[in-house]
């Protein structure tokens, strides 16, 4: 065997070691999940993730291939998250609720924690139509917009393990709710009108609230929608005075309880 053949053989052996180490690593990830479940521990532990990363960085030190190794490490972590989320959620998570209830915030956080795809329905419709939502309403009417929502929700059935962040009015149409539930669990986020006002008061992005930024208006609109939101929901999570990690943990726990009941 010449030197080149020898190096190639060594390289192949390195790849095998990597393969074995990764398989071992991912099996440990599954064990950690099972342990947390058995002892009723929180699934989300962002501080632990940070600790693990710091430990890796310290160990990496000034390694010649620091950047390249770190790049691979990030991809390993991403895939760990995918393993967890596929195990936890074999369905789409469909977030509904009033403007400012936190649908986009929750989507972003869950997506970062579990490497899940997010579909922001409003954004997707705006991109496809190349028009803002108020312009779609003005030009074609609300019925046309609701039909686009229904079509998009039907498309979501080709996916799983995706977070669907709905427009504030999407769950008001019975047909939409039917489509959401075909392969999704519907999570209703709620907050008191005072909390909503506090969260949205500095933004001009919500046409329905512009010129109506007061508790009375929000309360009335919320009340008029409450029954439909609640009827659509598989689980309800109240978000007042809770931080994003607490809210997401509650969502995960309630979804898991639902799984236990349906087995
Ligand atoms: N739990 C929370 N605590 C404090 N602030 C929050 C919380 N959840 C969301 N917010 C803040 O409230 C604002 C509205 O949240 P977000 O955009 O996620 O709501 P939304 O339900 O997606 O609203 P919309 O229906 O208009 O899209 C944001 O500025 C966000 O940072
Ligand atoms: O609450 C609503 O009815 C709406 C909320 C937004 O997300 C948009 O989907 C649209 O402006 C309608
Ligand atoms: Mg949003």
TrEMBL record:
Q: Which PROSITE patterns match?
A: CHORISMATE_MUT_2
Q: Which cofactor does it need?
A: Mg(2+)
Its Enzyme Commission number?
A: 2.7.1.71
Positions contributing to substrate binding:
122, 146, 168, 225
Query: Which of the seven top EC classes does this enzyme belong to?
Result: transferase
Q: Which Pfam families match?
A: CM_2 (PF01817), SKI (PF01202)
**Where, per UniProt, does this protein localize?**
Cytoplasm
The reaction(s) catalysed by this protein are: shikimate + ATP = 3-phosphoshikimate + ADP + H(+)
UniProt binding sites for ATP: 100-105, 206
Is Cytoplasm tagged as a keyword?
yes
Q: How is the cofactor bound?
A: Binds 1 Mg(2+) ion per subunit.
Which residue ranges does the record assign to the Chorismate mutase domain?
1-88
Task: Specify the domain of life of the species encoding this protein.
Answer: Bacteria
* Biological process per Gene Ontology, one example term: chorismate biosynthetic process
User: What InterPro entries does this protein's entry cite?
Assistant: Chorismate_II_sf (IPR036263), CM_dom_sf (IPR036979), CM_II_prokaryot (IPR002701), P-loop_NTPase (IPR027417), Shikimate/glucono_kinase (IPR031322), Shikimate_kinase/TSH1 (IPR000623)
> Which spans are transmembrane here?
none
Keywords in alphabetical order, please: Amino-acid biosynthesis, Aromatic amino acid biosynthesis, ATP-binding, Cytoplasm, Kinase, Magnesium, Metal-binding, Nucleotide-binding, Transferase
Q: Please describe the quaternary structure of this protein.
A: Monomer.
The record's similarity note reads: Belongs to the shikimate kinase family.
Protein's UniProt name: Shikimate kinase
Q: What organism is recorded for this protein?
A: Mediterraneibacter butyricigenes
Gene this protein is translated from: aroK
């Amino acid at each position: 065997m010449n030197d080149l053949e020898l190096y190639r053989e060594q390289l192949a052996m390195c790849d095998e070691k990597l393969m074995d180490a990764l398989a071992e690593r991912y099996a440990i990830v599954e064990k950690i999940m099972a342990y947390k479940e058995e002892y009723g521990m929180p699934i989300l532990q962002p501080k632990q993730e940070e600790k693990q990363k710091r430990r890796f960085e310290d160990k990496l030190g000034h390694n010649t291939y620091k950047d390249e190794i770190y790049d691979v490490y990030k991809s390993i972590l991403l895939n760990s998250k995918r393993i967890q989320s596929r195990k936890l959620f074999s369905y789409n998570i469909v977030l509904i609720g009033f403007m400012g209830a936190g649908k986009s915030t929750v989507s972003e956080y869950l997506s970062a924690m579990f490497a899940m795809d997010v579909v922001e329905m409003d954004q997707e419709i705006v991109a496809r139509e190349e028009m803002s939502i108020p312009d779609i309403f003005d030009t074609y009417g609300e019925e046309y917009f609701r039909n686009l929502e229904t079509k998009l929700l039907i498309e979501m059935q080709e996916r799983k393990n995706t977070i669907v962040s709905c427009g504030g009015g999407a769950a008001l149409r019975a047909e939409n709710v039917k489509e959401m539930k075909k392969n999704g669990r519907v999570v209703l986020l709620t907050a008191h009108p005072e909390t909503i006002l506090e969260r949205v008061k500095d933004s001009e992005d919500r046409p329905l609230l512009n010129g109506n930024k007061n508790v009375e208006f929000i309360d009335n609109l919320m009340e008029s929608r409450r029954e439909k939101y609640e009827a659509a929901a598989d689980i309800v999570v109240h978000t007042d005075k809770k931080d994003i990690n607490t809210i997401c943990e509650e969502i995960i726990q309630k979804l898991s309880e639902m799984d236990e009941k349906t087995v």
